[in-house]
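To: structure subgroup
Subject: Chain for Friday's discussion

All,

I'm putting the inputs and outputs inline so they're searchable in the archive.
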Amino acid sequence: MKILVTGGTTFVSRYTARWFAAKGHEVYALNRGSKPQEPGVRHICADRRGDLHKALCGMHFNAVLDICAYTGEDVSNLLASVEAFDDYILISSSAVYPESNDQPFREDQPVGPNTIWGKYGTDKIAAEQAARTIYPKSYILRPPYIYGPMQNIYREPFVFDCALKKRPFFLPKDGEMQLQFFHVEDLCRVIESILLTHPNQHIINVGNEECIRIREFVRLCYDIAGAPLVYEHIYQTIPQRSYFPFHDYEYRLDVTTQRQLLKNTIPITEGLKDSFAWYIEHPNDVLRKDYIKFIDENLIKTDQ
């Protein structure tokens, strides 16, 4: 297939471009050319929020994988500029579900503002609406936290850093909050299945069926790094995102539809091993935040 991937230089879009190119497809990456491009992927240099007509004029794609759309304007500008395509898949987010919905969140539930995700979530809703209006046959995927190789967000890499430095880990409350993850390779496998089978349902939650408690998530990261683990529990009214890379927000997606496209997902332990192996080789590719500095300046002093 001839495939257009928006982005192609950072985490999900980069991994997706490489994965489909490795499968033998003719992959094009649409980005501004400000970062190194993936080997084997053809580059279309353009700003998706600028004039795309010249860059995409006369081009036909079997599939457009829109991984870097964050607003309705992003979607409408792209779809108005591609000459022709057969399938369009938008990577949206679980952030489109308001926290007031019953859980697990289902695709047939209403979307709406979520106080945790704020503008990011409402912009993703607008992106979905644009896709469905302009191209009703669009497929929309709603993942939870995505992880795996090429992760540039300081989530599991932060936990790995704490393990590698043999630091105690400062855990919110009792550590029982649960998170839902999805490996970036599983996302690619779902996309491939959609392109091959064209399921009737066009809005699909994706993610691991099982959630994981944050204390267990941290323990796995420390085990993989080969480090001893001591928890320090934080019960004070301190903003969780000051010292921990996930929001104080527990939710779960119903991924029943996904089972028709993907029989098995990568176990979280194996996925974290993938993440750690990549991170050890690419420590400078992660956008770090000052969690450790905050802990050292505030939490350790508070506990003394």
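Points worth raising on Friday:
The two ends are 60 Å apart (CA to CA).
The mean pLDDT is 96.

D.
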